[in-house]
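Continuing from the previous page of notes. For each protein in this section, the sequence appears first, followed by its structure tokens. Read the first protein now.
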Amino acid sequence: MREIVISTESGSDLPANLIEKYDFKVIPMHVIMDMKNYDDGTFPVEKVYEYYDRTGQVPTTSAVNDYEYYKFWNKLKDQHPGCVIMHFTYSSKASSTHQSAVLAAKEMPDVYVIDTLNVSGGCTAHMVASWHHIQKRKEEGGIQNFGKLAEELQELAKRAVCHFIPGTLEYLRAGGRVSNAQYIGATLLRLKPLIEMVDGSLIATKKFRGSMAGIVDQFMKEFIEKYKPQKDCLYLMYSKGLAEDVLKRMAENAVSYGFKSYEYVMTGCVISCHGGKGAMGLAAMMEE
């Protein structure tokens, strides 16, 4: 049977241990600071925060372009002769990276593009579930129709859920995503917006009041009650700057809710350009 290679962009924020475990291949998105283009993942996320502290501006980000995809997939095909590539993109409604991947795939045989309809930990959850789905298909007698397999993996995207709460609205304000009035009001009232992935779009749906330590239990309880996710794994998302006691509490809650395992997913430089320091989030796969 032909080898199936799974690839994605750095915006999926795959933890290093999962990249190694599942042999995922990652192409970097880009971060632009001081008119220099940096590959996401090649520098520490603290550099994003340092740039904001120094300039008062958030770095700009850019998607992978079609030529970069073409080179990336050709390299994978050289390394894995005869392989089929299943590429999982950052949500098509949140970045142009999906459209670039689709354009590049038209020029290459045996490359299938799947829209995760997610970002960060949501992408991670979808990809891990897809890896297990592929193994199941192999055990059931092999895979002959790769186009049908890609359709099945795309269907899985509907079961991936992802919520997060920014630790600060400073970066959203600096990037023009919230107004000064909204920022001042939320800061004075200690309000934090809940951002949900809804059909591939980032939507602010409600507000929590208080510190991250004070709202973590309610946040997790509401997420789990609403989606009743599979108990295989809960993905605990965070950005640098989230307090250690909150990270520990997230793990304790995952265990108390009966999850067999949990994985910390730290947001990389691209996501941190928008969400800033100290964010927390959750991602999982819903039951069928």
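Done with the first. The second protein uses the same format. Note its length before scrolling.
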Amino acid sequence: MHIVIVAHALLAVFALEAVAMLAAWLLRRRDYALSAFLPYLVSVATGLLLATALLHLLPEAIASLGNTPRVWYLLAAGILGLFCVEQIVATIVHTGDAGVVHVHAHGHAHHSLRPANLIVASSLHSFLDGVSVAAAFAAGPRVGWITALAISLHEVPHRVGDFAVLLHAGYSATSALRMAVLPSLGALLGVALVAAFGASGDTAVYWLLPISAASFLYIACVNLLPELRHQHSRLAIALQMLCLFGGAALVALVAGLPGA
């Protein structure tokens, strides 16, 4: 992979991780702000992730590789594989921490994670983020930056949740922040993997695009959309829908720009 593409991907990964950790630090003791602000951030992230997968990543994969069954097999395998990984991690976590419950940053009951389990699960999540960003940059800078934006808005609630779990477990704010930074290494490994694939041929990178699209669709449909069903007031639902379609419209706008 060209060194400029790798540099852009690394810059984007550093930027999105910095934004996520800054948000975690600023919102660490503001429960009201978390409950009031994050649902709409999640709505924007959902729209961005869905539209990025459907309007950027998949079309780019088809344009580069052709509308072949292998592209769709990879998409399906990516979605099913992510489900299997989540189930395996959940089984390990629930076996090790059965019966312990606390409130997650999103405001829902959540089984407590031991720090090691939390870091491993978050590192895997960040690894997939790094792969998605790097693969998108390989397809083009605009695709890369819109992908990084989508991941950043999704990563903020996720990283705030990790930080809150560590604080709840009794770690100081400084220690919790240091531990929450560790999964960022997974994103760097993801970029390195895509760079290694690119070194063997430009076409190889494009096969990661359906997998990146699968991760976006899975996160949006399985992890985020259910979170949006907890709003009940008409105003909150209207704002939620506005944010959801606003995120998708932003991606559609970028997709329509020359050279996008």
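What the second structure shows: The CA atoms of residues 37 and 216 lie 22 Å apart. Strands lie at 101-103, 109-111. We return to this in next week's lecture.
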